[in-house]
Amino acid sequence: MKGKILLAAVFVATFALSRIPGLLPPDFSAAYAFAFCAGVYFRGATAWWLPLGTMLATDIGLNVYYTFHGIPVWDLSDIENLVFNYAAYAVLIFLGTRFRKQNSFFKLVGGGLFGAIMFYLITNTASWLFNPFHNPEYTKTLAGWIIALTKGTGGYPPTLDFFRNTLLGGGLFTALFAAAEKLTAESPADKTAGATEPNTEDEPEAKPEEAEA
What we know:
disordered C terminus
């Protein structure tokens, strides 16, 4: 139980620190790994409310921060975009529930990378389909969808640059979270479990000498 609480604290602290404005490149985030690994290492409602609740709290905090700095973030388009992100996070949590903590390290990292790819596809497809920011490039054609997945809207870096950071962040933080689980799961009792107990029984007593004839 203590190990689960410590692991949850590591997840939340790492994610919260990664959201400090300007600390990491755009889309190089712990969010994808947090959602995926929560599904892997926690069960029941905890797998859902821990990442989603933490994300919601940090999103509100960031929006307050940006509002104080004169950046509008409470527009309907921003809220719609946030809803798309949370839908993608829910998919990542569900993906994590299909894995087990006993899976190999490389399988878990692969799952985290796959989750990052899914997040990229879901959010960019939603941006193209619903177009909350009214980007003129996102025409409802195959070409418009490809632009949303590769080039993005004018005046911003290409979407593929964000995809690269999404993959790097997803893989790195999944590896860190998986390593943290291994460390927090081991306790002195776990390390000594199954060890052979020393033989403390007295050696058999020597047979009494035979009576003299």
